[in-house]
Amino acid sequence: MNPLPPKDSAAPFRRPTLKDVAREAGYHITTISLALRDHSSIPEKTRKAIKEIATRLGYQRDPVFHALSRFREQGCVRGPSPRIAYLENFGAGSGRVRPGHMQAMLDGARRQAELLGYQLETLAVGEDDHDTHTLTLYLKQQQITGVVLASFSPGFAEIALNWDDYAVAKIHSRHTEPEATVVGNDHIREVRLAFSRLSALGYKRIGLAVGRADEDACGHRHTAGYLMEEASIPPKRHVPPLLFPYNIDSEAVAGMIARWVRRHQVDVVLCNWNSIRDMLESQGLRVPGEVACACLCLCDPCPPGLAGIRPPLHLLGERAISIVVAQLKTTERGAPECASSIYVQSVWQDGESAPGRP
Amino acid sequence: MSKASGKTVKALPGALEARSAPKRYYTLADIAAKAGVHVTTVSLALRDHPSIPPATRARIRDVAKTYGYQRDPLLDALNFHRARRNQQARVVGSAFVVHASTTRLFGGNHYQPLVYAGAKAAAEARGHTLDIFVVGPGHLAPARLNTILNARGISGVLLSTFEIDIEQLSLDWAQFCAVKIECLHLTPHLDAISNDQLQVSRLAMQQLRKLGYRRIGLATAREDQTRLAESFGMGVLIEQASLPEAERVPPLFFGLAEVPQLPSLIPAWMRANHVDVIISNWAELFDTFATAGIRLPEDVAFACLDIPPSMPHVSGVVQNHRLVGLRAMQQLAIMTDAYQRGIPEAQTITYIPGYWQNGITAPQKARRWVV
Predict the structure, then answer these.
(1) Mutate to test the interface with A, among B25, B74, B179, B329 (most CBs of A within 10 A)
(2) Number of domains in chain A
(3) Is residue A144 a part of any domain in this protein?
(4) For residue range B203-223, what is the model confidence (pLDDT) as tens digits?
(5) DSSP string covering A34-54, please?
(6) Residues B309 and B223 in one domain
(7) Are residues B191 and B338 in the same domain?
């Protein structure tokens, strides 16, 4: 005989139902249902009393169940799938194109959402797109309660929804609210992995060049990994990391990197921009003859022959969706009391931009 | 005649179906009929269950795709709530596997019971059971554990407290959904849940600076540094990077073999570096302070990086061991529901933050007035 689980364990959280409200209020369940939908057949005073009780008990109409009952009423025809909002702030409304790494995340998120039976709707946040007010209205109108903040860039538009109404997860976006579960690639380990691989290849003066905005969004984890590696090499081989400022064009960045390479005799540049090789060559530095380079975020379309770290970016999207769906299923809302961080591990890829040195 | 035609319709349901409009909504049963297998086979195949041959799984997936069968999130959510209400209906067993050399961690002041309690609570909330299995010398051999788990139909495995000298655990991983708790060094590279030691040491540094401390020294075992991917040291290093040179204290890393010499090592390091507060994950340092005649907080203040539950008066960071267990089990439950067995294509690690606790071992530093 199979033993039954012990009954005395703590009762799991149960969401209050219409029945609970009915019991508390002393009306029939249909009265409650009508009252909460503001039906005119129920006296206004009663409606108000019932609404107060419902609020006190924490009764909330759940869009997932709402859709389910609509589906049952309408027989065997499936209603539209519930949606999850995928928010981005890179400036789609101002005509900017989604960068390759964000496209990879989005692809993973979309696949996972569809696998779990949801539709993913990308929504742009920005000066020419949604702001907090219009976004709140739109989500409410469309009954969207699951939200992913996808790799928000610091320095661009931000939003402040009433997070307690939503199931939410973030991809990077550490600089902005809410304090929700964060999914990211593990920059500390990536920099350390790249560093040890480049050391093994014979490089002596390894320099880290990353954008300040990227650092703010990921919690300064590139520089953290670099500091850790630097601590184990003699001081004369230290190269101060180069952090380029917010909203800077790639030509200016190329100039900064070239000056820094020459000044500190960097023999290999570790950069999170895919265009690192072009930037170096545009400044008259031969790759890999004068300086080698490796990218910390290889993603397709990727310049051929570029060495570096290949993070499984599609998994970031996938995990973020899984987290939101798990919350939607259990009707949890808002940021958790203790927000955890989830890091996906990456692999190194050799390339002719950073060949072995004699 | 109307009677007869009624019978005909009943006997030939296919005829009616052929006349009606094409189906817009396909269920598992429809897919089963099209593929010529039982409905439970379809269900298992679409969830990639290993009991269905790979070729059959692929064929059924193709059929499902052809008819546009899609998993329904509404029914999914409904099932979840039904399962919670009626727990007896579906009992899933999971295993909490610990190593024989670490059973001591279940007694006294150790954190292991907290991790287990968290995992157990999460398991029960979902109607899973969670049983402890001990592997290692004098207990189960891995192969034996494999057999037992199979015999009991347990597919979910949580691995906990495998210390640094245990490099791998050989189970037939393709059969199991598994999540590691800490023990990041252990192969295979399964998904793992861990305390965020990096955040813990950074938080301690930040809080102590707010309390007025300026020469903050980290003391920890070299073995801990290896085990935790150097995260305590890294946190200190990151915080020190933004401090003036004069306020950066080099950490004291000691070997486990050097523990008996700590009563002389610690005072020497304190004096050489003018340490005003020690941070360490070793609550055992209280014994060292007593032996060496160091008074807290007069001679030096102390903040523990992993305050045991029995020490509510100590300053430092409380690591959320219970939440680690809880999250590990939640993730395992998601994996068992989706039949995600074996070693993942890319490992993910989830970090749980700790929180600060004020205590008497590191009081607010009195301001010095210069006359």
Answers:
(1) B74
(2) 3
(3) yes
(4) 999 999 999 999 999 999 998
(5) HHHTT-TTS-HHHHHHHHHHH
(6) yes
(7) yes
> What residues of chain B lie within 8 A of the CB of A15, using their CB?
81
- Residue tagged 């793992």 (tokens): B192
Q: Chain A contact for B28, CB < 8 A?
A: no
**What token pair was written down for A333?**
């809302």
Give the residue among B149, B156, B160, B157 at the shortest CA–CA distance from B114: B160
Q: What is the C-alpha to C-alpha distance for residues B17 and B15, in angstroms, rounded to an integer?
A: 5
Least confident among A15-19, A101-105, B112-116, B336-340: B336-340
Distances (CA, A) of B111 to A341, B9, B102, B106, B292: 21, 68, 12, 7, 27
User: Across the interface, do B348 and A344 touch by the CB < 8 Å criterion?
Assistant: yes
Which among B71, B87, B121 has the least Cβ separation from residue A10? B121
Query: What Rg value do the Cα atoms of chain A yield, rounded?
Result: 26
A&B contacts, CB < 8 Å? 129
Cis amide prior to B297 (ω within 30 degrees)? yes
Residues 321 through 340 of chain B touching chain A, CB cutoff 8 Å: 323, 327, 330, 334
Q: Give how many domains chain B has, as a whole number.
A: 3
pLDDT in tens, B72-91: 777 777 777 666 666 555 56
Q: Measured between CA atoms, how close is A131 to chain B, in angstroms?
A: 29
Q: Is residue B284 located within the same domain as residue B331?
A: no
Within a domain: residue A252? yes
Provide the residue range defining the domain that includes A273: 187-310
Residues in chain B: 371
For B146-170, the pLDDT digits (tens) are 999 988 889 899 998 787 778 888 8
The length of chain A, given as a count of residues = 358
Measured between CB atoms, which of B25, B230, B349 is closest to A228? Answer: B230
Residue A131 sits in a domain whose CATH number is 3.40.50.2300
State the residue range of the domain holding B38. 23-71
Enter the ipTM: 0.74
> Do A342 and B233 lie within an 8 Å CB cutoff?
no
Tell me: do A320 and A181 sit in the same domain: yes
Does B250 reside within a domain? Answer: yes
A191 and A305 housed in the same domain:
yes
Which CATH number is B58's domain given?
1.10.260.40
A219: left (phi over 0), alpha (psi -120 to 50) or beta: left
Phi, psi of A306, rounded to the nearest 5 degrees: -80, 125
Q: Are residues B328 and B345 in the same domain?
A: yes
| Helices A313-330, A100-115: crossing angle, 10 deg rounding | 40
In a domain, A294, yes or no: yes
- Give me the CATH number covering residue B179: 3.40.50.2300
Q: Which residues of B touch A231 (CB under 8 A)?
A: 233, 237
Sort strands A83-88 and A146-150 into parallel, antiparallel or unpaired.
Answer: parallel
Q: In this structure, are A180 and A319 located in the same domain?
A: yes
Please name the residues in contact with A340: beta carbons below 8 A apart, sequence gap of 6 or more: A181, A182, B196, B323, B327, B350, B351, B352, B353
Give A-chain residues touching B229 at CB under 8 angstroms.
189
Residue A284: the pLDDT is 92
Nearest CB among B124, B237, B349 relative to A227 is that of B237
Helix, strand or coil, per DSSP, at residue A85? strand
A196 and A145 belong to one structural domain: no
For residue A57, being part of any structural domain is answered with yes
Contacts of A189 in chain B (CB under 8 A): 229
Section A151-162 average pLDDT: 87
Same domain, yes or no: B326 and B315: no
Q: Assess if residue B109 is contained within a domain.
A: yes
Please name the member of B70, B81, B349 whose beta carbon is closest to the beta carbon of A117.
Answer: B70
Residues A194 and A305 in one domain: yes
Q: Are residues A99 and A56 in the same domain?
A: no
Taking residue A95's Cβ as centre, other Cβ atoms within 10 Å add up to 7
What residues have CB less than 8 Å from A356, skipping those under 6 apart? A201, A202
